[in-house]
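Quick one:
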Amino acid sequence: MRLTAYTNYALRTLMFAALEAPNLVRVQDVAEAHGISRTHLVKCVHQLGQWGYLVNVRGRGGGFRLARPAEAITIGEIVRRTEEGFDLVECFSPETASCPLVGRCRLSTALEKARDVFLEELDGVTIADITTNGGEVLSILDLDGGGPMASECDALRAAADVVERLS
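Output:
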C-alpha cells in the first residue's frame, strides 16, 4: 500500500500547524520548508479547513492554525479522509470484482485483515504524538533560514528511497 502525495501533504500541514501552535502558519512557509508545491498545499489547506481540522484566516497577515487540539486529531482519521479508498486488490470492490474466487479466497481475507490492522494502528497515533520532537523537526526544516537545509533533506530523501525499495 502506498499513500498519496495529498495525504502526505495533509499530514505535513497538520504537523506544521501543531509545531507552530497557536500562531498562524502561511502556506508558503510549509511549501518552502518541505520543498513542495504551494498550489497543492493551498488545495490541501482549504480542504482541511472544510473538514474542521484547520481554521483558515484570509487576507493580509492570514494563514491557518489547528482548529482542534493536536491530541484530538488521529493519523487514521486523516488517512481515511484523504485516501480514495482502501481496496488493496480489485476484488475488494463489488463493482470491479472479476475474480471467480470472491468470497472464498483466503488472500483477500488476509489483505483485508492487514488493512484493518494498519488503520487501527494509525487510529492510535495523534498529530501531537508525531510532533513530540518539535525542536528537532524545526531545526531540520531550518525555518529561520528560509527553507530546508539541502544536505539534510537529501539524506532524508535517500533514507526514504531505501525504505521504499526494501518494502
